[in-house]
Amino acid sequence: MERKKVINFSNRFFSNLEQFGLDFNKAKQNILSHIEEKEKDLSLDKRMVFYTPYIEDGKKYMLAGFVTKKEKSIFIEANSIWDKGFNPEDIIVTETNIRIIK
């Protein structure tokens, strides 16, 4: 079954877009493509952290947020963009109902 993808962008995400001078539509498509690739790894009704690499003008960024798979949709919350290195092993999850997907 094809799930409808709903994406919400935080004020911080838009602020980061402006700060780094990134293209909104390219960043959005990058997130949607990444979630589509990882859809089978998502658990139903479980909020999970996502992050995906993004390259623009030869510079690397990390797009990050949360994703929740529902019966008929996938809800994506794009929260921030990082321009620094990122190591997923450094993340400490304090809420037990969140899983990290690469």
TrEMBL record:
It comes from the Bacteria. This is ATP-dependent DNA helicase. It comes from Thermoanaerobacterium thermosaccharolyticum (Clostridium thermosaccharolyticum). One of its GO terms (molecular function) is helicase activity. The lineage of its organism: Bacteria, Bacillati, Bacillota, Clostridia, Thermoanaerobacterales. The keyword Nucleotide-binding applies. Keywords: ATP-binding, Helicase, Hydrolase, Nucleotide-binding.
